[in-house]
Write a structure and sequence with these properties.
about 525 residues, alpha+beta, Aminopeptidase, Nitrilase/N-carbamoyl-D-aminoacid amidohydrolase, eight-stranded mixed β-sheet
Length: about 525
Amino acid sequence: MLPKEYDTEKGTVLVRNPRVDDIPSMIALHRRCFPHMVAADGAWEENELRSHLNVFEEGQLVAIVDGKIVGVASSLIVSMGRNPLRAHTYYGITDDGYFYNHDPQGDTLYGAEVYVDPEAQGRGIGKVLYEARRELCRRLNLRRILAGGRLSNYADHADRLTPEEYVWQVQDGKIKDPVLGFQISQGFAVRDVMPNYIRDPRSKDYASLIEWLNPEYQASSEKEGTKVRVACVQYSMRKVDGFDDFANQVRYFVETAGEDYGAEFVVFPEFLSVQLLSHLKPMGSREGIRKLAEFTPQFVELMGTLAREQGLYLIAGSHPVEQPDGRLENTAMIFKPDGTYVCQPKLHITPSEKTWWGISGGDSLVVVQTPKARVGVLICYDVEFPEAARYLADRGIEVLFVPYCTDNRQGYLRVSTCAAARAIENQIYVVTAGVVGNLPDVPAMDIHYGRAAVFTPSDFEFARDGIQSQADANVETMLVTDLDISDLYRSRQSGAVTPVSDRRRDLFEFQNKLSNEMIQAGIEEGRL
């Protein structure tokens, strides 16, 4: 596991996964190593390297000597199907350099790039990076490493040799090629020569297809640990006597989900905590929501304790949180098994939230990497806007949780229908939980209509109608079901339709104003 120090004849080299603040140094190094690719518009850009960290941080490596980055290796996991040695292009296999097609269920580690500072060559940096990549392949039990290798000196011989003849002579030692020769010395076998692989004048756009087979690979019919158990709490609003009464009701559901049903994720509905206003004296809606925000420390302590006691991920519905500038945001807190949490604010605010409560929209989207799945949260109205879900899906989420609060069937249908659409178009699971019951003395929370459900892509791997499980409407209950993450990747790879890979990126470009900052290991946040 990284970070790790490697001993070479010229000294010690530290290899670790890069951080966001390493990106400028990585770009500068890439441009020094490949000035001809800069001219051909093929050098790395910041948004591409950020995407690599988002989708597969573990596969990105930097080599450090004396505190300076002197080498970089970039990788992703792909599924090559029944013909793993088929010809491809660099931009196709790397999803135009962004690695959006990274497939955690794949069997092949694809080496997208390795480059070493020219001033540090001869110190064994390349060998260290290749060894670290082989160790990653073995640790993840992947079948092979595959890569396209530049024919770095082919331009000097193209007038008399075909690319295949050039590769044969490099293999025979008759021509020196610093890239292909090094790859062969590292145990890679040349399987083919691919035309139009990458924009590289020195290679005449050709590349060798090289393969290293993992001798420790253990084949299995199904990868273990691909199922995730989720519990959706269809929570009934009713008068409480105080915070302790509220806490007891919440505790009951979390303990039941964890202890009795073995749930790994529990999701409560939007505005779960508004129930606390029922034990206070009647007040106006804006005064009430401000009063509710004062319960934030107690709310956080309760939810963090429950997540820690049960060792699960707890999406604690939503709660109004006062911001440093005095604004209120409708915020979902995602608690981890250690009791820590991150916040996902609601971005799109309904007219009634603005009118009754003065809620403001947030400006960030969070992705949480867990041992079983990569997840995100959109609160109620947010799921009715495809851009937010697409942003999260492009950053690799497999499960989207949607806590909601709707007062009638029309509102419920807007949320549930759009949740089903997000599942189909992004080939992800969408897990929803809504409130039921009523709070007669709390303004804007009088009546509710809810029906918890789990939506899937609509394909052969999944339940009929794209609904894996659904609760009865308007009764307090808990919906528990298992999600098979591997089914998502089978569907994306060979489904009746494959919307994730069939997007027309040549016609439609998705843009956002999110800065996509990494805020801690396992958590990414995009901020407007």
